[in-house]
Amino acid sequence: MSRPVTLTLNPAFRVAPVRRRTFGAFVEHLGRCVYTGIHEPDHPSADEQGFRTDVLELTRELGVSSVRYPGGNFVSGYRWEDGVGPVEDRPVRHDLAWHSSDPNTVGLDEFMAWAKKAEVEPMYAVNLGTRGVQEALDVLEYANAPAGTALSDQRAANGHPEPYKISMWCLGNEMDGPWQIGHKNAEEYARVATEAARAMRMEDPDLELIACGSSSSQMPTFGAWENTVLTEAYEFVDMISAHAYYSEKDDDQASFLASADDMDYFIDSVVATADHVRAKLKSDKRIMISFDEWNVWYQHRAESRPPSGDDWPVAPVLLEDIYSAQDAVVFGNLLISLLRHSDRVASASLAQLVNVIAPIMTEPGGRAWKQTTFHPFALTSRHAKGEVLQVNVEAPSFENPRFGTSSSADSVATWDEESGSLSVFVVNRDAAGALDLGVDLSAFGDLELVEALTLHHEDPYAANSADAPDTVSPRENTTVSLEDGRLSGELPAISWSIIRLARAAA
Ligand code: AHR
Fold first, then answer.
1. DSSP letters of 255-305?
2. Is 174 a catalytic residue?
3. Contact 494, 329 (CB under 8 A)
4. Alpha-carbon 319 to chain mean position
5. Whose CA is nearest to atom 6 of ligand 1?
6. Ligand 1 centroid distance, CA of 399 (Å)
């Protein structure tokens, strides 16, 4: 039985320009993300600063634009000054968030050196859990002040005379979460975030400051938290954060496949709340969203349980989820949702980059390999160019316990008028069967098909490994063709595709 999906696309359906910052990621002092992830001095590929060059190469291939650092839950107990100065003088500390030990071999200066090599913009989070305004100002002075002050001179003495000019600063992490060290209620957080932001702006009015929003749309305080925080902090911040993780729970595959419906709802709700505060305050300014943690994460699995008791290991195996083909389809759909909201999502960070719920995996002393999720991220980052276009999707639907009814297909497109490149991103997120794609592209003039790639596996739970890194990877979709301005093809059940077209030569 044919199951048609019709996409309506037009270059006039513009949402916003594609923002490079949509393709950010996250490096936290957690598990093996930093130690044996980005940094492993004894690794055969390590450079003179101890960074794994195989991971650097994969990071560049992934097309990462910015990287959030150093946490995460970790940052809420972190003393930034432990991580600067001669490495042999740095203290070992217990990291209470992940019940681990941190030797502080990597800190701000090492991260900035790595970010330069990875060609990514840094995004730095300050500790508003155990610390406050003064420490936020101190790390800002160390990082950004021109030489001539106590802390910027310390940076220079540590070998970095030039200010780092970090623009994006997160005012704490997930302060709405009772698991957070120094957890606060909305009023308490609104106070400290506003005061930190006000003081940081006195040092540099041009910083881009991000207040903590909700840790998920399921938090009991969701909505009310954003309202309280923004009502106080509105004039001092530029963005409010959103965090969301999805996984298949209780064998409910259908709800998991429809996860992007929650991301759409989350973003739309935060935009509505921020704009409500804007109206209340009669402000001209619009608050944007920093979706600075998003991914598939199987939090209930043993891999995510931190050590306990007297065991405080350095870089334990933690949150090392192995992603399936299905996970990559949901993941690709989340990217579709983020892109679709480019008018209000100004920045996003995939959590995380290496080993910890990550697209890049490493063996200590050994290989680095790509998870299934590497591919939708890399292809979207590489080919999303120009303007984001809203796509109208007419498709069958499927029932699921979490959202009721969800569309079997979801899509977004980007159109670069100058080069004449059109990229269509589309998922079939229905386990029931293939969809017959039909797209009328006549509004774009004469186009030719460049390539159609589909990520799909007969077994939706198939995954990659160091020994079989290409079990799940995008393959050419030979069913896709373009005739007289009409694109057609087959989208297999549970698949993510990118279809690239270009203006035909005159
Ligand atoms: O990314 C893993 C953790 O998820 C982060 O440390 C925290 O901010 C979130 O709860």
1. HHHTTHHHHHHHHHHHHHHHHHHHHHHT-S---EEEEEEEEE--TTSGGGP
2. yes
3. yes
4. 16
5. 72
6. 30
**What's the CATH number for 19-383?**
3.20.20.80
Query: CB neighbours of 334 closer than 8 A, spacing ≥ 6?
Result: 244, 246, 259, 260, 263, 294, 295
* CA dihedral of 143, 165, 59, 73, whole degrees rounded to 10: 50
pLDDT grade for 300, boundaries at 50, 70 and 90: confident
Closest C-alpha to 346, from 190, 206, 210: 210
Q: What is the mean pLDDT of residues 119-145?
A: 98
**Which atom of ligand 1 is nearest the CA belonging to 352?**
1
Tell me whether residue 293 is one of the annotated catalytic residues. yes
Residue type, 420: G
Nearest CA to ligand 1 atom 3: 72
Mean pLDDT of the chain: 97
Burial of 362 (0-12, 13-18, 19+ CB in 10 A): buried
**What residue spans of 341-433 are helical by DSSP H?**
374-383
- Whats the size of the chain, residue-wise? 506
Fold for domain 4-10+388-503? Immunoglobulin-like (2.60.40)
Q: Which of 81, 232, 293, 387 is catalytic?
A: 293
Q: How far apart are CA 17 and CA 414, in angstroms?
A: 9
Gap between the Cα atoms of 438 and 480, Å rounded: 10
Tell me the pLDDT tens digit for each residue of 339-391.
999 999 999 999 999 999 999 999 999 999 999 999 999 999 999 999 999 99
Those residues with Cβ within 8 angstroms of residue 351's Cβ, 6 or more apart along the chain or in another chain:
25, 26, 28, 72, 243, 245, 292, 293, 294, 295, 297, 357
Q: 243 CA distance to ligand 1 centroid (A)?
A: 9
- Per the CB < 8 A criterion, the answer to whether 292 and 24 are in contact is yes
Ligand 1 site residues (CB inside 6 A) read 28, 30, 71-73, 173-174, 293, 351-352
Backbone phi, psi, residue 91, to 5°: -80, 155
Beta bridge partners of 437: 5, 489
- Domain locations along the chain: 4-10+388-503, 19-383
Q: Is there a shared CATH topology between the 4-10+388-503 domain and the 19-383 domain?
A: no
> Going by C-beta distance under 8 Å and a sequence separation of 6 or more, which residues neighbour residue 243?
174, 213, 214, 215, 216, 291, 292, 293, 294, 351
- Span 281-293, average pLDDT: 98
Confidence of residue 322 (pLDDT cuts 50, 70, 90): very high
67-34-88 Cα angle (round to 5)? 120
